[in-house]
Here is the input.
Amino acid sequence: MVWKLLKQHISAAQLAGFFFANLCGMVIVLLSVQFYGDVLPVFTQGDSFMKKDYLVVSKKVSTLGSVVGKSSTFSEGDIADMEEQPFTKAVGTFTPARFKVYGGLGVQGMQLSTAMFFESVPNRFVDVKLNDWTFKEGQEEIPIIIPRNYLNLYNFGFAQSRNLPQLSEGVMGMMSLDIRISGRGQVKAMKGRIVGFSNRLNTILVPEDFMLWANRTYGDNETNRPSRLIVEVDNPTDERIAQYFKDNGYETEGDKLDSGKTAWFLKVIVSIVLSVGLLISILSFYILMLSIYLLLQKNTVKLENLLLIGYSPSRVARPYQAMSIGLNLLVFVLSMAAVVAIRSVYLDVIGKIFPDLPPSSLLSSCVAGGILFLLVSCLNVWAIRRKVNSIWIRK
Amino acid sequence: MNTIELQQTLPEVFAGRDSIVSDIWHKQVALQRGKTYLIEAASGTGKSSLCSFIYGYRRDYQGIICFDGENIRNYSVFQWVAVRKRSISMLFQELRLFGELTAWENVQLKNTLTGYADKKQIRQWFEALGISDKWNERIDKMSFGQQQRVAFIRALCQPFDFIFLDEPISHLDDGNSRIMSEILIEETKKQGAGIVVTSIGKHLPLNYDRIISL
Here is the structure.
């Protein structure tokens, strides 16, 4: 009955205006959040087992330096200086093997064998979630991470020219390598298992524990200075990094700087789109508030009479509050539906280009939409109540 | 609620006037539950203002108004809602009915809030006051006299300690006034309530305990 009375003067056109404006804003906001979540892995994937923002740093090897025997290794002073830089979070050194390594692989009866080398970095630079990345003394199997290039070299160069089968990463992971390590007059045969492929590390990586044990047991005694450093930074796009490296004649390996930049641009673009969406949402919210204020204004006499025959302000405000919450909820649900629909289209495309992208969930956009819905609804409820209270107080 | 006290009350608009001859303004007056009062006044002496002060929708007065010794100026919204639902019923001079609703819907709007009268009782009142054929008629299609009767019935649809009727029969004939009096007496007796009627000429025929001139 109260609703029958209060629904008069409701302007369908105004509410429709709010509805579509808010729908647009909400879809843009949610879509940008969702898109960011879906697409970001494209730029950050690859070395999921490594911490994200790290750089591999080496000194330039110049012709002159080679001739005069200038060292391309990092002194302790270099490392300390690097650690003090404002963009640095942590610095680790590559520990090279001080023993000889031979690796062998049997493919269709054909034995490939080669001299190899191992390096290790401190475990904290390798994602700890990787359970395989452990080594205990006495263990016969060594987990290994090799550059993805090696696999490509084999698959697209070697295997094709020799009519050998191409190997997927999964198959490689199941094969075991024959590893022979020797030094100080001892020889030990072990098995190697490839647990990961790296786009960015141009080395054959083994766990630090193994390296320490093997160097102790088989290594010669001289300690090598590290020739490469692994540096974790706050933001790989920081221009101070580039400047510092240039000043000291350092080089970085891999494409981390580039993909970091791309990810950063993605962030910027998404932020811009997000702000536009938010702006539209705020404006549409404004339309709704104006519309409801106008409605309350037109119904002031009725509201006043309802209050005078004993209706409480909260009871009188409730139909309008319910109406705005209902509208907001409808907008939320419809915009989620729109996001799901649009997402399925672009996921198709992305899925074709990057087939092994990890699946992402709708959670982020759901949460963002939920927060937006709650925020807008609370503001509506509060504003309507305030307006009704002002009608009460006016008397 | 047993008493409504007015202590030195005066509408702020009268503050500039030199001499005020009144039984209420600038006096000490107490209205008791169970008694019947007639407030007689010429137009413009503040009848409706008095009603609005006591009913809490205007506060532009000087002095103090108390319900059972409690100053109503400090009442919260919550307290006022309770007073309007359970303690004081008001038949407004301007009626304050909803023109776009029917007679029954107008009464129902109040009755669903209080749950006081049953539909049968309400129908009897409609019949007694001769507007049973207007049951489903929209209020804005009815004459003012008919509307007055609907508003009166609405005012009965709640428990009350006092019922205020602001010029209830200004547009009623004597027959209907008599019937209204009978219903009013019956209802107030049932509730032990006090009656306050204002009038500028025609009185609701009742046995008044006190006639106050404003």
Notes: The first strand of chain A starts at residue 54 and ends at 59.
